[in-house]
Automatic annotation (TrEMBL):
Gene3D superfamilies: YVTN repeat-like/Quinoprotein amine dehydrogenase. The keyword Repeat applies. Keywords: Repeat, WD repeat. The lineage of its organism: Eukaryota, Viridiplantae, Streptophyta, Embryophyta, Tracheophyta. This is WD40 domain-containing protein. PROSITE patterns: WD_REPEATS_1 (PS00678), WD_REPEATS_2 (PS50082). WD repeats lie at residues 90-131. The keyword Repeat applies.
Amino acid sequence: MNGACLELEKPIEEAVSRIRFAPKSNHLLISSWDSNLRLYDVDSSALRLEATSEAALLDCCYQNGEVALTAASDGFIRRYDLHSGNNETIGNHDDIATSVGYSDETCQVITAGLDKKIMSWDMRSGKAPVHLTKLGAELESMSLSGFDLMVAIGRSLNMYDLRNLDRHVQSYESHMEVQIRCISPIPYSRGYAVGSVDGRVALESSYPSNSNNRGYIFRCHPRSKDGRFHLVSVNDIVFNPFTPAAFVTGDNEGYATVWDAQSRRRLFEDLRTGRTIGGG
């Protein structure tokens, strides 16, 4: 398949931690380990904003088209004005903050960290956390879809209802044989995509007993060095809200690759080096 080519201004030199599509525009919000939050206009290939943080950014999300949130290695959750780049702290975890998401349904910021806690912050009532859930293990990744919160711990996936975070309502075991690094809901089906530490992506059904929805696994981020392949962790998976079958993966070396879930083919890459590589 021959795909379009993407070349964005000012390449990312460190690992990509999160890629987010804007809710109503063709903008990409990207956080990375170089402590920068970047906003790209894909239509014009322009860098609209680059905001530097005091710590590595492990996650980011939109609150709306004007405001973004980040989770950082210093444990703090910060809120950014995407016009000025100014930010404010809304709270913090006791250890590294690994994940952040925003729910339109509840107007809550949901966060997780290596302190084994899920916390929620109500943006309508102030900055004090309104709920805290203690987990028995470190949470690797989480994703929000409506009232559903899905979290990845090791190879397990647990589903929570945002209206009652006291206990999970469903639990799944991924087909991955290694640790899950990221998780994302599939917008056009009752399923989810997970990325692993060994460079693979699995598209799986929320109803694994149904043989028609068993999904598939593919290896997406091997890199060749000195004629030998090594495996790079898939840090993020995000689906395009305007073209649901298309999704982007970001890896531990700063690459972003666009895939077609239906044809199971790569469309194009990359954001790291500034090269344009057509899909094969």
